[in-house]
Amino acid sequence: MKIGIVGLGLIGGSLGLDLTNQGYDVMGVSRQLKTCNLAIEKKIVKDASTDFKILGQTDLIFICTPIAQILPSIEKIIKYLSRETIITDVGSVKGEIVDHATQLWQNFVGSHPMAGTANQGIEAAESHLFDHASCVITPLPQTSRDAIDKVTTIWRSLGCQVYKTTPEIHDQAVAWISHLPVMISANLINSCVNNDNEEVVKLAKKLASSGFRDTSRVGGGNVELGLMMAQYNREKILSCLKEYQENLTIIIDNIEQKKWPELETILTKTQEERPNFIL
Ligand code: NAP
Q: In angstroms, rounded to a whole number, what is the distance separating the alpha carbons of residues 55 and 30?
């Protein structure tokens, strides 16, 4: 099987490394020529170009560009493909993309590997990024069984646990566990920085340790990705943020009113529930 990757950044580059290591011929397309050259040099791909024509003979293509470029990329490549070629993407939001992509190309299956780091670009690509990660695929009722099976098999070969659901359920779930945490974490960093006592901020920066590292990681990462999550999953993230705000108001009230048993109840529940999310 000959594989194509569009967008040779953190996700696309990491995919290229693992798939090349598995023995596939991987053809890459990226926006910048220097990225393409680097991808060849680092053995992420067999060949790469800024021209989509290079994907002409591929059997399966992963679109790994920023979310806003996924549909425009599909529009540009389809004229070079045979009808059997399967296209998948790795976008963090599925609803709008899967609907439109399926209209453009019937052999399309949406994917979202739940793997990443705080870094971006081809320099951030690493092998085994997807090992032990979850990957959600979001076929529609009309998606071909063959395309679903091939995409599932390849994600499994990369070490992923594959889950299948609808784009709608995917977007709701990731709003809670991925997109909302980005906004909360960003707001945490922002609130610390905006503290008007300079001496406190200076000391806090020195004292910040593992707790702050964990809670600030996703808010201090890829800006473009955070912005796209908000733009493309706007309604779902808004409803999560509002519910979060209501729960925060309860916590503030408990502390203001010294309702310690109520606060203890919340903290006991969160302590019990966390292991159910982090397996
Ligand atoms: P990234 O590191 O910024 O990589 C994206 C790459 O796409 C860039 O390096 C850029 O390469 C290339 N690119 C941009 N516009 C392009 C275009 N029009 N045509 C071809 N290539 C283009 O971002 P990423 O973190 O890999 O994210 C890529 C996708 O993965 C996004 O859709 C995101 O939702 C999804 N995702 C990200 C994560 C995560 O944690 N980061 C996790 C799961 C899924 P050049 O160097 O050539 O400009």
A: 12
